[in-house]
Design brief:
With 466 residues, this protein is α+β, with helices and mostly antiparallel strands. It has 17 helices and 11 strands. Helix content is 50%, strand content 15%. Helix 15 crosses helix 16. It is elongated, with a radius of gyration of 37 Å.
Length: 466
Amino acid sequence: MDRVTSVLKREKIVDILNETSRNFRLPLAITDLEGVPFLDAAESGTASAPLPGQISPPTGSRNYPLCYNGERIGTITALTSAENLAAVAYCIENSLRLETENLDLSAEVVRIYEEQALIYSLSRKLGNELEVESICRYILEEAGKVLAVNNISIMLLDSLTNDLYTAQCWGRDRDASLRFRTDAASGLLGRIFQNGEPITLSDIGVEERLAFPYPVSSILCVPLVTDDKGIGMLVASDKLSGEEFWSQELKLMGVFALEAAASIRKAQLYEVIRALYIHTVEALASAIDAKDPYTFGHSNRVARFSMAICEELGMDREEVRQVELAAILHDIGKIGTPESILQKPGRLTPEEMQIIQEHPAKGAQILSNIVELREVTRWIRHHHEWYDGNGYPDQIAADEIPLQARVITIADSFDAMTSDRPYRKGMSADEALRIMEKSYGSQFDPKLLGTFKNLYKGGRLSFGRI
């Protein structure tokens, strides 16, 4: 009877026996394989657990084997003919089977619902996410809700070396996993990756364990495949319960991996396109810098300083990237400025100064037809405005000046002061900061200048010359 009670609640077995007793109008009793009374039911259909040693119904009744899923589990006893008792046993067995199937179906409905909820949750989180790191983090977060394991990681293919490397990992051996790389064409993980099919392995041998940087006994591996091309793999090892991985877990992770692979690949392609875009912009900035060899690399340094400030302010990654773009292009308006003015070794005349001061507006005009750069264009136009309203080209002040433009103003001024010019040598960073501090609230936003100063004092600025 233990086999039955491990699946069905005792109350449900009582209900089945009561129903059968009422239908056949017989007092019935069930004993287990050892002959120990388990349940009995009166003719009225009221079942109870007999006292130890009690026999019910009375002596002289007949017995018939009681089975469950084809295996005997005990005996049904009643004062009736053998033919009727066989029918009674059949009804009870059939009721037990149907109840078990109902439980299985209910569990399947719950499982399918949970799977759909998991896939929906992952899809909602990924949404328009275009950061590979964030996508991998979300994947592990959702997969971890299903797989309670020692370690779970996302490995991605390095197309340059044809290695699989750990992009993200959660679990006991995270540090070891994050340093892990393996050949994508050989070894245990390489063979699984090349095969492209989800797999579970238990009782992993000593030789196969050497493929991992941490101890493993069993693994679940799901290659990430999109457009018939492998881009990585989800690897989970050793369930916390000590059990083997179930085929249902493998199936779920296989469906899970389809969504994950598509999102990762989309983000990778976005990174390639964005890198090409940034490199094109940098090439344009270099062409501008080349007009003045004394300021070569200026735009890239301004971009690094601006990004550091924005990150310190807690801006999200996409906004930081937009500021990077604006900083790289902030002097694009100088493309029309004569080299004789840009490289003049002495003081500029008022007329020449006026031409120089036209470059923010010219830069905005050059980029004005690119809809995607509308905000970037505003920041470029206003990167020479002063906090007190005495800048150019529009003499706006304080919060009228876009925050991103105020950031670029500080980065641009600092690099200009610390760079060599035809008419002077660049000053030290400390000296430049001392001079800038005198313009708190006049040229520079006090809060942003304070942030920049803290970054410098904390050694968190990159001063490398390009």
